[in-house]
Specification:
The protein has 12 helices and 13 strands. It is an alpha/beta fold. The chain binds iron/sulfur cluster (SF4). Iron/sulfur cluster binds next to loops.
């Protein structure tokens, strides 16, 4: 399977009044053709900033994106011109966000907004774009497509709006869909429908998905490959079955233990003790050491590198040596 995108050593830092915040710190990963890769972690771990950095959406803020390369086909997204990146965005790589209401323009009809990428990227005539937009509304499971085409965003429910965002994202046949917490703001039943639809569209079109979520239920449903981030770094990654069966990093183990089980009482729910460290106060160490039951002296003094274990899973933790397969915790 070929790689759709290869990210090497990506970093994003923000200048703040209190100092420099490294939101993403030396992250490398790849997404293969037709694969779903999930980036998982708590709020503030850098997963959304990673996605935005790939598409140049941090530019214009106080953020600075650097890295060795972000290879997409024969182009390096860190080095293409802003106009070429605009062409790639929404056409070859599409993105959907958590809050569809804030992503759509409230003063334009759904139809106008669906036609825009078709006219801009595929140079469709107004008539062809209209027909395709109506077809797409039906494809994402919304009845009365012509009526919805003429509606404004405030006339639709959250679930319908997210379907429209997905229709817009896939309208130009992207190779990669980046979905940032696409179901977080929706009811559980609607979440399941949206995930089913994303899977169907992926199978139909062969596109790859980079899915950002804090929800391990979504990861279990969707992922082929999982990347766990903590404080701007990748701390573990691997095939979904392996990672769920044998999580190596104490943070991944804590995340999986925090997942509610049917019939479990609220007081029995596990939560990882402590908080994500202040990004302005990070020292050379394992950034999880304050919260880790296995913390050793070296963890407070030296940062563990991401090592590949036997079987291919990668982990950044001093408990493991490369090619070691013992589990801990
Ligand atoms: Fe825990 Fe040390 Fe591993 Fe960090 S490096 S997760 S503190 S054992």
């Amino acid at each position: 399977m070929s790689n759709v995108i290869e990210v090497d050593n990506l970093s994003t830092r923000f200048e703040t009044e209190d100092g420099v915040v490294k939101a993403v710190d030396g992250v490398s990963f790849r997404v293969r053709s037709g694969e779903t890769v999930c980036i998982v972690g708590e709020s503030g771990c850098g997963k959304s900033v990673t996605a935005m950095s790939l598409l140049g959406l941090v530019e214009g803020t106080s953020g600075l994106v650097t890295g060795d390369r972000v290879a997409f086909g024969d182009r390096d997204l860190l080095r293409v011109s802003p106009s070429e990146l605009r062409t790639i965005r929404g056409h070859e790589i599409a993105m959907i966000f958590q809050e569809p209401m804030t992503s759509l323009n409230p003063v334009l009809t759904i139809g106008e907004q669906l036609m825009e990428p078709l006219r801009e990227h595929l140079r469709m005539s107004r008539k062809a774009a209209r027909a395709r937009a109506i077809e797409l509304i039906g494809r994402v499971g919304i009845p009365r497509a012509e009526q919805i085409f003429a509606s404004y965003p405030h006339e639709l429910s959250g679930g319908m709006l997210q379907r429209i965002m997905i229709a817009m994202a896939v309208s130009c046949g992207p190779q990669l869909l980046i979905a940032d917490e696409p179901t977080t703001a929706l009811d559980v039943t609607i979440q399941a429908q949206i995930l089913d639809m994303l899977r169907e569209l992926k199978d139909e079109t062969g596109m790859s998905i980079l899915l950002i979520t804090h929800d391990l239920g979504v990861v279990a449903e969707m992922a082929d490959y999982v990347i766990v981030m903590y404080s701007g770094k990748i701390v573990e990654e691997g095939e979904v079955s392996e990672l769920f069966e044998r999580p190596r990093h104490p943070y991944t183990q804590g995340l999986l233990r925090s997942k509610p089980v049917l019939g479990q009482r609220a007081e029995e729910l596990y939560s990882i003790p402590g908080q994500v460290p202040d990004p302005l106060e990070l020292t050379p160490s394992c950034y999880f050491h304050d919260r880790c039951a296995h913390c050793m002296d070296i963890c407070t003094r030296r940062e563990p590198e991401l090592k590949t274990l036997a079987g291919g899973q990668k982990v950044a933790c001093w408990l493991y040596e490369p090619a070691e397969v013992e589990t801990h915790g």
